[in-house]
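Suppose you are handed a protein chain with no further information: no name, no annotation, nothing but its sequence. What can you learn? This example shows the usual starting point.
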Amino acid sequence: MKETSKGSKRSSTLSATRPLLLGLLILAVVAAILVPLYIVRTTMISQLAGSPTNAGTQTQAAAVTPGSLAKFVCQITSTAANNRLNGVILKENSDGSYSSTGSSVSIQWDPNRSITMGSRQDVHQGAILQVSGPVGSDRVIHVDQVVILTGVVTVR
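A reasonable first move is to predict its three-dimensional structure. Written in structure tokens, the prediction is:
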């Protein structure tokens, strides 16, 4: 008779732990899916709006040579005909804000294909853009990608 009661205690203990084990399994599966998604999302965001690398200071802006690839943040000062933009290169400050380097830049862009975030109506005088593309022989940046940063970053 004692053996029967021990067996029933084991089965009641096993049946009591099954929901706990199932819950832990579900939690592990959810974590295995969400953690990589979070890492990929964070990486993509930092790549899109990350620190520009090529022309953030006056020295770097002067070093941009025809044929090289330029990537920088600028503030548009005027919009000319034929999708030509003029602007001032901005540099990132230690607090995450941007300030002018005093270096001017000319940008040639195709509004139908080069905007990654935002729309062509967001490209106007005073707009903050992150642009990347090759430097032409005329030292004009022929933009492959435009990211609209107006309203996202602060210019001091």
